[in-house]
Specification:
This protein has one domain (32-343): Deoxyribonuclease I, Chain A (4-Layer Sandwich), CATH 3.60.10. It has 346 residues and is an alpha+beta fold. It is globular. The chain has 5 helices and 19 strands.
Amino acid sequence: MKVPLHLFIVSLFLFFSSFRVSAQVSSVTNEFSIMFYNTENFFDVENDSITKDEEFTKEGNRRWTSGRLHVKAERLAKVILAAGKWNAPVLVGLCEIENRDVLEMLCRIEPLTRYHYKIIQKESPDSRGIDVALIYRPDLFHPVDYSAIPVVDPDDNSFKTRDILMVSGVLNGCDTIHVFVNHWPSRYGGIMETKKYRRLAAMTLKSSILRILSMRSNAKIVCMGDFNDTPADESLTTIIEAKPTDGAMKGELVNLSARWTSYDIQTIKSKYRWEVFDQFIVSDYFLTPTECFQFKDCEIFNAPFLLEPDISYGGVKPKRTYIGYRYNNGFSDHLPVLLRFSLKGY
């Protein structure tokens, strides 16, 4: 059948347009990322009888509904894709998620579902029922081992907090990396009053890192999370012994986020003050290029759509889901952070 000339011209135009788009996408796919994001209360709508999640139910103080939950999942998916520069992150560490159900909802959101993210998550003993988790792209990362490492207080059996999630896997078929996802105890109740709990989390993480390094001194280790402490606090400088990028020596841990403390916009804001709670800490060997991997940079993703004017204290602040009990239709009270790298062969 003969195709009319005008239809042929339209088809030709669409073909070359799609070719140009494909070429543009392929030109940036050599850049990949690892992301961490505190999702701020990513709860389902059901009441869990053994956790304190009542406020995030239909009858609770926040009037949390299925519609608001779905909007929250869509917003988080948008952030993940935008932060990855439309090449979705290989690994995404998440905290303040209630369970696997909300993670599965997130991974089904278009167009995030196209990356076929898999989930690693385990219920932790946190009293509110919030956990840490890792989602990963199976085309680029193959997990070989994982464990949920409890943070315990030997003097207080009633103390409960989030586990530290450890995942070891092969990146791009050739480099093994060891990833720790953290959400350390908060400062709620006072900085000094809660300091001991972050020390416990730091000691737990450090012993797990040393265990890996004792088996392989050149291991590629990535620690990411909401540490509820800044890069200058004792838990990270003295216990973890993480050094700034320009101050680290061979065999030491490097806090890639230390320089962010001088930025105008950091990862979380309390009244007038921005702070860096969300961080990446890596083994120095992670920064050494290999045959298929090369570290590029580390950054706070502070896109304008994640921020809103701060009427009370000036400047801007993260656009969160709730302000008090008032629904704000936002994203999170934290900004996401990213570690960018290139993979050879792409």
